[in-house]
């Protein structure tokens, strides 16, 4: 007998949104300890991209047409790639450790697979 999938009542039930939310939480936690001069540079860029990923999944869920949902999922995927690029920028001056980078990279790659 096949396992029943949980009922999806809102975007908050989507596994992809949950993955993006966890990435967002980690980005906010990591960036909270960045140097003050990065507050309006890397911190702002990373946090905006992380918020964009969850927001686009949510907005796509709320659209009536499948094609619109695909469009917003594509934007969420782009935001995840943007986070990954910014994290490589953070790695070079040692704002984050190699271990933190690798952990978040794996989370992001998993999120990218889920978003499609």
Features of the shown structure:
116 residues, mainly alpha, elongated
Q: How many strands?
A: 0
In the predicted model, the low-confidence regions spanning at least 5 consecutive residues are none
Helix % is: 55-70%
What is the tally of helical segments? 4
SSE order: HHHH
Whole-angstrom Rg = 15 Å
Structural class estimated from helices and strands: mainly alpha
Approximately what portion of the residues adopt beta-strand conformation?
Answer: under 5%
Overall morphology: elongated
How many strands, which pairing sense, and closed or not: the largest β-sheet? Answer: none
Rounded average pLDDT: 94
* Beginning-to-end CA distance, first to last residue: 27 Å
Describe the structure.
- With 116 residues, the chain is mainly α.
- It has helices spanning 15-31, 42-61, 66-91, 98-115.
- Helix 1 (15-31) packs antiparallel against helix 2, helix 2 (42-61) runs antiparallel to helix 3 (66-91) and helix 3 (66-91) packs antiparallel against helix 4 (98-115).
- The longest helix has 26 residues, at 66-91.
- The model has no long low-confidence stretch (mean pLDDT 94).
